[in-house]
Amino acid sequence: MLPQDVALDLVSTSFSPGVRRLMGRVGGKESFSAGCRHLEELAGIKVQTKAVERVAEGIGAELELLGRRERQRAIAEQNVIPLKSIAKLYVSFDGTGVPVIKRETEGRRGKSATGEAHTREVKLGCVFTQTEVDREGHPVRDEASTTYVGAIETEFGWRIYGKLNGAD
What we know:
Structural class: alpha+beta
Distance between the termini: 33 Å
Shape: globular
């Protein structure tokens, strides 16, 4: 390891921080192969699809760890009072079963006749505010107020709570 590699944040990677940010962004918004093509078309950066996948998933894992720490702190402190007053806040979430590989269901009871699980529940949530109505009196969602979250986990309510307080 060279001192310059540490200074330039290149340790254990062959991509600069800026290229990793781009790879994480395209890898989080579309398929890894499409992200790879877009990097080349828009920035002239040629990388392999697997590199986009590794970088995007690594960044996602780091963000998930930060969010988990915030949620654990909120749970430990029982800090359940919103940090700011919001006149109308909408919170919506739902879940559905998604097929997963066998090791993802080990130790989990399923709905099949044998009790074996073949799916995990993925939960999706949406939080937004509304302060105006249209001419007919229907609520109008505040522009840029919507935040979406999704996860396969048991404490999803705390993930939603984190969005209410601007965490995650």
